[in-house]
Amino acid sequence: MASADEGSPAEPGPLPLGGGRGPERTADEAVAVVAGDGTITGWTRGAEALLGYPAAEAVGRSAARLLAGPPDPRRTAAVAAHCRSGAGWSGLLPLRARDGRSLDVDVRVTSSFMLDGREAFVASGRELTPHWTMSGSVLDDFLSRSPVGMAVLDPELRYLWLNDSLERFGGVPRDQRLGRRPGEVLPEVLAEPLERLMRQVLSTGRAVADYEYVGWSWSDPHRRRAYTSSFFPLADARDRRIGIGYMVLDVTDRWNARRLLALVNEAGASIGSTLDVQRTAQELADFAVPRFADFVFVDLLETPFGGERRGTAPPAGGGRATMRRAGMCSVREGCPEAVVRVGEPVDFVPPPHDAHFLLHGDPVLLPVLDPDSHEWTVEQPARAARLREFGLHSLISVPMRARDTVLGLTTFMRSRNPVPFDEDDVAPARELVARAAVCVDNARRYTREHTAAVVLQQSLLPHTLRGGTALDVASSYLPADAKDGVGGDWFDVIPLSGGRVGLVIGDVVGHGIGAAATMGRLRTAVQTLADMDLPPDELLARLDDLVLRLSEEEPVDRTGTTVVGATCLYAVYDPANGRCTMARAGHPPPVVVTPDGAVSFPDLPAGPPLGLGGLPFESLELALPEGSLLGLYTDGLVAGADKDVENGMERLALAVSRDGLPLEDLCPAVVKELLPVPQPDDIALLLARTHVLTPDRLASWDVAVDPAAVGEIRAKVARRLEAWGLAELSMTTELIVSELVTNAIRYASGPVRLRLLYQSALTCEVSDASNTSPRLRHARTTDEGGRGLFLVAQLAHRWGTRYTDRGKIIWAEQPLP
C-alpha cells in the first residue's frame, strides 16, 4: 500500500496487545496486491468483505483513497524503502470502509518483488476489536486506577510519579511526595528498609521481587498492615540507569490468614500438653501473652452446663455464673492488673452481658474501653480502677464451649500494645479459645473418669490388712505411670478359721477402669472361695473356672481388656504349726527371708495363668520359722526398665534382706530402691512376718466316742479358760464345746479331737473322721432336738466347717472380752 502512513521503522506505531501472538482478529484475512506507484492491482474477497469495495471498484485505483485520514508522503516513502530493502513492515492503519465507517486494521506488507515486469507488494490485514486498542488515555487510566501501587523515582530516590493506589496506601498526598524521598514522607520503620533495597537495585541493576513487610502507614496508623513490593531499575536507550520503579500490593488479608494458621498450629503444640484442666488453662494464657494480648485470664465454670449435662443451665434470670480463675498471664510480672487471683471465685462477664452470653453469645469485641462508663464504674468499680491504673484500653472476651458444653470464658486485653483489637483479631482469638476448650473438656472428662476409676480401685483394694496375731503385714501399691493411672494389680489378707491367714496377690493385664473392675471381681471371688476354707490349689482351680465364665460373658472388644491375662498367687499360713501352703497361677514366686538372713524363692510350680482352663494347679507346703519374712509381689516390681526379671529378682532379694526396718518402712523402701522412677506397669508388694502360736496358747484333747465324755471335756475347757484369764467366756464356750462334741460323737466317726486356740480370738475346733457336712436346722417348738448348731451360731461370732485329709473340722470363734 503506497499510502501507509503509520508504523514506520523509524517511528513504530503502538505495540499490539496479547503477547508474541499478536492481536486477536475478528474478520477473515483481507489481501491486496499494490504496485510500486501505489495502484491496487489485486483484490481478494476477504478485502471486499472487510472494506465493502468490490474488485471492480478497487483494482486500478490508488491505495491512498482507502485511508481514513490524510496521507503522509514522507512516511509512505520510508515504508516503501524499508520493504525494498528485503524486510517487511507491519503496523496499525485506520482505513475507511465503502459505507463510511472507520476501521482499525492490523496491516502487514511483504518485501517488494517483480510481477509482470513491475514492482509489487502484498498487503494483508485484519480488523482489530476496539478493546485491544491501546491509546495513551487508556494507558494512563490503567496506571492510575490499578489496585497495585506504582511509583517512579529518580536516582536520588525522589518521587517523580505515583498512581492513586500508592497515594491511598501511604496516606500521603501526591503533591507532598513528589520531589521528596520515602524517608521524608513515610514512617521511618517502613522507609528505611525500602530505601536500602532501592539503592541495592540501583547499584546492582538486578530487580527485587516480592519483598514482604509489615507496618503501619499514615492512612491507618493504629492497625498493622502487610505489603509486598517489587523494585526494578529504569534505563534509557543507551542503557543508563535513570531511575527506579516499584510496585506495592496490600496483602493484609493474606497475611492475616497466614498469621492465623501459624498461630493455631503453634498453639496446638503449646496448649493441651497434659490432661490437667488447670494446666491447660494456664497454657492458653501463657501462649497468648505477648503474642496476641498483654493480659489474658481464663475463668472456668465450677459446674459446666449444656452438653451431656442436660439438667444444668445458666442461672435463672440471667444472673452471673459462678466461675473460678483457672489461669492468667500478663506482660507485667505478677499480673497486677488482676482483680481476682488464680483459684479464687469470679463472676466476670463483659458488660452489659449476663450468663446467657456464655451459652449462646459470640465473642465480644470492645475496641475501646471506657473506665468511666456506667457499666464499669457502677457495676465493676474495682475493675474500672485497674483499667485506669494500667491503661487497659481494648478487650476481646470469648466463651469457651466444646461439644455443646459451656466451660467458661477467656478474656484478652491490651495495654502496652497501643493497637486496639479489631474485627481481624476476633478470628484468632476464637480459634485459640476453641482449641483450648477442646483440651480443657478432654482434661475435664479425663479427670472425672480417672477419679471414678481411682475411687473404684481404692474401694476394691483393702483399706486395712488384718494379719491377727499370726502375721505382721504391710503393703505398697503404685499405679502405672500411664494415661489411665489405674491398673489391675491387687492383693488381700484374709483371716481364716483356726487363726490361719490367707495371703493373695494378683495381676490383671491392662490398665484403666476395665482392669480395675476385673480386679474387683477376682478379689471378691477369692474372698468367697477362701471363706469356704478351700486349699490353695483347689481355690485357684475354682477361680480359673470363674474367669472362663467371665471371659465368655464379656467380649474383648467391649472393654479392651480381657481377664484371660490374669495371674494369681494364694498362700495360707497356719501359726499353730508354722507352715505355709501356697499355689500360683502364672504369677512370680514369693520371696522368703528366714530369721538367719537366708533369702530364697521357693520352687513353687508356676501353673497356667487364669482363664486357660483344664490345666491343673499344684501346691507346695513349707515351714516358716518364727520371724520369717514372706513377700508377694507383681511382675512390675522386678521387670524394671531393662525388662530383666532375673536381675530384678536378685535386686529384690537384696532389698528385702536388710535388717532393722519395721515392715511399714521396709515395704516402701524396697519399692523405691527397685523402682526409683515411675514405671509403665502397676506395682504391688505385700510383706508378711510370721509368728508361731506358742504352746501355752494352744490346748487340745482327744475325746472318747462316748456321750459320757462330754462332761469331762467341759470341765477341762473350764480349767483352761480360767488359766488363760478368760473365765467370763467359760459358760458360752462350754455350751459350744458340748454341742460340737455331742454332734461329733452322735453323727460322725472317730477319732474325735477338741482344740482351743487363744489368739486375737478364742477358737474352738472339733475334728472327726467324717466328711458329712453339718446342717444348721431351725427346730420346731415341738422338736426335742435339732437345736445344737443353731445355739452355736447364736453364741459364736462366726462358725464354719473345713475339710482335711482325715475328715473335717467344725469350728466356732468368739471375740475376746
Output mean pLDDT.
83
Q: Residue share in helices? A: 25-40%
Please report the distance between the alpha carbons of the first and last residues: 140 Å
Strand content: 25-35%
Parts with pLDDT < 50 across at least 5 consecutive residues: 1-27, 557-563, 781-785
Written account of the structure:
- With 817 residues, the protein is α+β, with helices and mostly antiparallel strands.
- The chain contains 23 helices and 32 strands.
- The strands form 6 sheets. Strands 1, 2, 3, 4, 5 and 6 form a 6-stranded antiparallel sheet that branches. A 6-stranded antiparallel sheet has the order 14-13-12-17-16-15. The protein has a 5-stranded antiparallel sheet with strand order 8-7-11-10-9, sandwiched between helices.
- A hairpin with a 5-residue loop joins strand 3 (89-96) and strand 4 (102-109).
- The longest helix has 38 residues, at 423-460.
- Residues 1-27, 557-563 and 781-785 have low confidence and may be disordered.
